[in-house]
UniProtKB/TrEMBL annotation:
It comes from the Bacteria. Gene3D superfamilies: Vaccinia Virus protein VP39 (3.40.50.150). InterPro entries: Methyltransf_11, SAM-dependent_MTases_sf. Pfam families: Methyltransf_11. GO terms for molecular function: S-adenosylmethionine-dependent methyltransferase activity. It comes from Amycolatopsis coloradensis. This is SAM-dependent methyltransferase. Keywords: Methyltransferase, Transferase. GO terms for biological process: methylation. Residues 45-135 form the Methyltransferase type domain.
Amino acid sequence: MVTTAQAKAKYDQLVDRYEDIFFYVADVGKDLVALADPAPGVRVLDVGAGRGAVARAALAKGCAVTAIDASPLMMRRLAEEHPEISASEGDLYRMEFADGSFDLVTAGFVLQVLDDPLAALTEFRRVLAPGGTVALSLERQSVGRLAWFQDLSVEFFAPGGAAEPKAAQPGPMTFDQLDALLVEAGFVDLTRETVELPKPLDGPDDLLAWMMPRGLAEMIAALPPERGAEFRRRFLEGARRMHDDGGIVLEFAATLHRAYYR
């Protein structure tokens, strides 16, 4: 979970590379808007818009699009590239819009990182007009064939390393949990779809390069230099075994959720 300040700092730094690093957001953004199926002219609010994957897809449908995000740089860039979109920095828990201002509220990969997703969904419902739609995407996290990387991360980065039992931590949000939150927030007629976007990588060095800007670089930098070098060596060994045993494929998947405010 991240605070608004942490999100702002993180995503301001990624403004030029966001959709290169998170390769799946553009395709899933189009899928999410297709599920919501807004008619031209529908008033859309895209919350946590980032570089505009969902907002752009809604704009292509002829919608009147408003976008907010904690990152002012993301919103400044989106407004420069797509002046038809009303893009601004905003707090999704206390949005500066009147009740019933929108016909569709979207949020791509947002709910899973919030400290209070129910409060956010309640605010989404407030700004929706009766009969309005909410459409959300949720990353489906699975260790899969990267179990070796999880074990290596525990050994090098967990307090006490592998010798110390891991404390019980709440897992990532599941699609059932998100549906339950939608119901609790007052939404009805839920629909859910799954999308899968596997990404093959050419080899061990490519896997390391893919993971470094996703937090691994900072984790390695916090280690003593010799320990950091040892982690890199062990990582590449594990990635090489994965490559030799069927290739390196990132098994990304997401669920799309649609519901209504009656």
